[in-house]
Amino acid sequence: MADLLIRQGQGPGLRYQDLENSADIWHWLEAPPQEAPDGIPYAFIASLGDVSRPAPFLYTVELDIAEADLPAIFDWYEQEHLPMLTGCPGCIGGTRYRRLDGGAPNLLAAYRFERPEVNQTPEWLAARSTPWTERVRPMFRASRRFTRRLLG
User: Fold this and answer.
1) Residues 42, 6: contact at Cβ < 8 Å?
2) CB hemisphere CA count around 85 (13 angstroms)
3) Alpha-carbon distance 9 to 6, whole Å?
4) How many other C-beta atoms can be found within 10 angstroms of the C-beta atom of residue 48?
5) Would you give the distance in Å from CA 71 to the centre of its chain?
6) What DSSP line would sit under 68-86, residue for residue?
7) Which fold has domain 42-150?
8) Cβ(81)–Cβ(64) under 8 Å?
9) What is the pTM of this model?
10) Cβ(54)–Cβ(14) below 8 Å
11) Is the peptide bond before 105 cis (omega within 30 degrees of 0)?
12) Lowest CB count within 10 Å: 28, 51, 101, 106, which one?
């Protein structure tokens, strides 16, 4: 069963709009009921910080990682990346998910932000530029990043 369901365009859940493309709206449904509508299903992996409430901004990173590389990516995320990013000023918390339907990208990280430019701060940029990050980055077969704002 999915811990998160994302639908584009319409549906239940929180609505987050891409800052660069106003037509791109995600319906973000955590702990979806069994009878939830179709969407992209994800299983919870880990979280850090306050992820119990909606945030004004959601920064999502989608990664496509080969199955053989997942243990190395999980170690990096758990031991370094997630703690460093969620410790940055303006980052409320972060959650990691694995896609359940076999589609790509197969991993999703969602960071809750107080303001949209948190990922441009010196602290955030430093957290993305560690030696360990540079070692695992070649494992990213594809990546997509979006900053979204919560719609009322």
Assistant:
1) yes
2) 27
3) 10
4) 18
5) 18
6) GGHHHHHHHIIIIIHHHHH
7) Alpha-Beta Plaits (3.30.70)
8) no
9) 0.95
10) yes
11) yes
12) 101
